User: Fold L-threonine 3-dehydrogenase, mitochondrial from Seriola lalandi dorsalis.
Amino acid sequence: MLVVQLLKGAAKHAGSRPQCSVERLFTAARGISSSSRQSSASGRSQCSACTDTDLPKVLITGWFLTDLSSCFTLRRRIGKTNVILSDIRKPPNHVYHNGPFIFSDILDYKNLREIVVNNNISWLVHYSAVLSAVGENNVALAKEVNITGLHNILDIATEHGLRVFVPSTIGAFGPSSPRDPTPELCVQRPRTIYGVSKVHAELMGEYYHHRYGLDFRCLRYPGIISADSQPGGGTTDYAVQIFHAAVKTGQFECNLRGDTRLPMMYIDDCLRATLEFLEAPAETLVNRTYNINAMSFTPHDLTQEIQKFLPDLKVTYNVDPVRQAIADGWPMALEDSAARRDWGWNHEYDLPELVQTMVTHITMGNQVAQAY
Assistant:
């Protein structure tokens, strides 16, 4: 009965919202259609940066850290064979069958260069990274992957004239940064190796742009919430884990204080923002690094919203001092007026829409799994 109610609510909600910019990202059971909104808004369904005969060839590094929907959406948008996924780990079979996958170690400069040349790569989307909480437990690895790997990416992209996208994060700010909201240009003194490496990436990318003309693009993401991705060692992971626990067991132990307010974004908005930013004409970009924002909430806020659908959810708190210290130095909200002005960014999901969609998707997924 819960599923029927959720689907009815989602379908009603979908009909009341403006259409977004990318093709359908998730199944109809999710209740949210993303495909027609871009067409109705702009009258185009192809990449704006290229023609039918000159589509970009894209290499995505570290696909394990992405939501697979982002990779598959990009493939639907510019062609399956034009988007190559890469990592140092073997992917599941459905990834192999969906399109090109290759082994790529970003620390192996020669191998990465060969991949770019042999596959005629024109866009490089660089997700490979060691995340915040994991990085504090292995600083040496975080320095090697997040800094040395980035240098390889920038040098190869510059040498071959690539458009390169590197995600940044709220972790690029620190306790001395203004927190509510955090502007794009302000003091950045992060206290994690992850945050330090992201500030380094932003500055190196901007330097390469001004010094060598590299088409470098960077978005500072808030915490990203998706039902399809697994937690990867990030401080905002609780906001994904709580949904799975709420549906499966009705109990969740949160490792942050209940009043810890952080900026968050639903994956659909994240995918759309990334694609729109990648496709934006270079001359419209005043900056090379932009904040993007959607919503901000605390674990307590999120719990209350989930309980509207799952009233039996019980949440306890066992604060992890490392993660809490990281969160206490991060923004509560990001000021993103430049992105909205320069390339038309506008989020679509606030907290009620996020919770309804996540609970529906996870509930449906569990029922399908139980059927088999």
Notes: The domain at 129-371 is CATH 3.40.50.720 (Rossmann fold). Residues 284 and 341 are 10 Å apart (CA to CA). The radius of gyration is 20 Å. The chain has 14 helices and 13 strands.
